[in-house]
Amino acid sequence: MYPPPPPAPHRDFISVTLSLGESYDNSKSRRRRSCWRKWKQLSRLQRNVILFLLGFLILCGFLSYLQAADQWKALSGRPAEEQKVKPEVPPALPAPQKERAKPEDFPDIVPQKRLRHFRRGPPHLQIRPPNTVSKDGTEDDAKEKETALGNAQQEENTQRTIISWRGAVIEPEQATELPSKRAEASTKPPFLAPRIWKESEFKEARNWVSEKLNFQKNVDVNLFESTIRILGGLLSTYHLSGDSLFLRKAEDFGNRLMPAFTTPSKIPYSDVNIGTGFAHSPQWTSDSTVAEVTSIQLEFRELSRLTGNKKFQEAVEKVTEHIHSLSGKKDGLVPMFINTNSGFFTHPGVFTLGARADSYYEYLLKQWIQGGKKETALLEDYVKAIEGIKTHLLRHSQPGKLTFVGELAHGRFSAKMDHLVCFLPGTLALGVHHGLPADHMDLAQALMETCYEMNRQMETGLSPEIAHFNLYTRADHKDVEVKPADRHNLLRPETVESLFYLYRVTRDHKYQDWGWEILQSFNKYTRVPSGGYSSINNVQNSQKPDPRDKMESFFVGETLKYLYLLFSDDLELLSLDTCVFNTEAHPLPIWAPA
């Protein structure tokens, strides 16, 4: 008999069977069922919102892809040579020594450094450098002079322009002296020939006005903008040409604007339909801006004088008289808004010389001048307002102690100054020219320097739409600072307008020099190769000023016109003693004394 076998050793173990494929499939299935269950639990509104956001994101991504693709395509499509010549900091126009380096070969290169220029002045002003003399009294090497001449000639060729309703440009006559240097010379070549009137272009424009300018249209227009541009332009052209066609058109248009004055208070509505005669306030308010209702007087008064129909003048002078007697002012300063129903100021306690109030002060002085300096109420309101500006709005910046005009809101001062305020130095100088106190000229010159610095302190040499001034000294801070939302430039005229007045009154050529610098900046950063100029988004970035593809009409009507007159040595051309410019730079005659 055999002994029993020994007991088997005890082993603890767990048997685990994994079916990876089946488990993974089941997990995915459960997740899908869970997501679908959660989706079904959402309300219809929630599902629609999610679908809308998803679609919006897909659309944005698609548009971004198209934009990037277009940019890559444009870059890839350039010639290899052109891609190579564009470094991180774009150069000035290519040097003229190389035959292939022509301006037209580089249409997208932004010039950053101006070629050597011997004397400042309008484009085409300097075509020959002065002879330079070495220490031993001999002339410089002929080759050096030839190179310098080539550089100067190339710059002029790229900037030669002509003033015209077609092209927004300037073409001065030859001259060889800087404005500030010509005053010292015994013989003075013409700084600019008065080429304002081009016969063939005027004839073509006249034909268009005669045959195609028809105001019988069902369209709303802004009373103020249409008056200063269209009515003022037609009246001015009538005086410059003597052609009665323009007066007939002006009277027709003036009649179509008159329904705007049919309000309970006689303060005009902001908008009027020139076809139907229906006038109204904007949809969001029953207010009009004070600047708009008080800056149409020059034009309507002149229309009455020419036509003999007093209704135009009576309508606008009722507005002037009403504002004159209205309460709510602060030492001659007026609020920005006025109600067309009640005739009272609204939003009281806010005072500015910028948008919505600026040209009220300008037209007080200019109406007084237009009427032969006989309407004393206008003069009194103007002088009082200037004193109010000195008392409440005038400050000095740090560290440069620039004089500027800020804003006042319910007793609180803001160091904010619109570029629009740069009309004020010119208006002050105009007043001094017509006999107002000499201290107005001191303020005009101080403010003129500030407006120049608003341009000079920017990388592009062009002023922002709005500037803020430092009231306290801070390390590494300039006098002028700009917020991102305000750094655009719309090609506005106010700085060069005031430069024109300051030069006419003082004969100081530095104002011509400053205007020349600004013109060069316009040419460098805003000029479009195919013609015209464009507003830019960023005056602080000379590498990427970011054009807006829009040129305001006031650039042709005002900015270039004032530059032309600033550069002219003919001080009787549109003399300040015989004409007054409306706020769109259209000259109207000063009425002869009775």
Keywords:
globular; single chain; mainly alpha; three-stranded antiparallel sheet
Structure overview:
By secondary structure, this protein is mainly alpha-helical. It has helices at 20-41, 44-76, 80-84, 142-159, 179-182, 199-212, 223-241, 244-257, 290-293, 297-307, 311-325, 358-370, 376-392, 424-433, 439-456, 494-506, 510-525, 553-567, and strands spanning 220-222, 271-273, 279-280, 287-289, 337-339, 345-346, 350-351, 394-396, 403-405, 407-409, 412-414, 416-418, 466-469, 480-481, 579-581, 587-589. The protein has a 3-stranded antiparallel β-sheet. Strands 4-5-6 form a 3-stranded antiparallel β-sheet. The protein has a 3-stranded antiparallel β-sheet with strand order 7-10-11, with no helix packed on it. Helix 14 (424-433) runs parallel beside helix 16 and helix 15 crosses helix 16 (494-506). It is globular. Mean pLDDT is 81; it is low at 12-24, 71-149, 152-177 and 185-196.
